Amino acid sequence: MKFVSVFICLIATVTAVKWKDSRNPNELITLDKKNFCMFTEGDKEYIGTVSQGQSGCQGLLRTGSKVKISDSFKSLTKDGNEKIGWKYCTGHKKPTRAIPCDDSKALGAGDCFLGESVYGDGICHEELGFIQGRFVYMIHNGKKSRCPFRLYLVETSQDSQCV
Fold first, then answer.
1. Distance between CA 21 and CA 13 in Å, rounded?
2. Could you read off the pLDDT of 68-113 as tens digits, one per residue?
3. What predicted TM-score, i.e. pTM, was given to this entire model?
4. Is 38:77 a contact under the CB 8 Å cutoff?
């Protein structure tokens, strides 16, 4: 019986969405003519976007407000058949199939997820970013911005519930 429960846990952690050193348009997850990107400098991790036609990733430090551009970065990629979508959850809830910032974590696990801010009566700009706590953190006009209105990037091969 132990084998069955361990096997089920392993299946839940497998996802075909990964950070890779790839610029192959067939692998990249492209949303609003942008791709999610990630790079590290020392022990500091930056998550951001690279616009189509640009060579550098404009990233935001996950633990601060520093914005940097790097030509050496990983792109968020997916297997050819992977289905990606958006999910809205209220309050502190998050989707069970939310794509975490760290691809070694299972879907819906961790404290950082990829997402997008939602325009709300001029309060927020619609931008791709990462979600920590109640906010989407993103770069707008070269500066850090945050927004409480958020959509989570989710893997949609199964229904994602807000929990």
1. 22
2. 999 999 999 998 778 899 999 998 899 999 999 999 999 999 999 9
3. 0.87
4. no
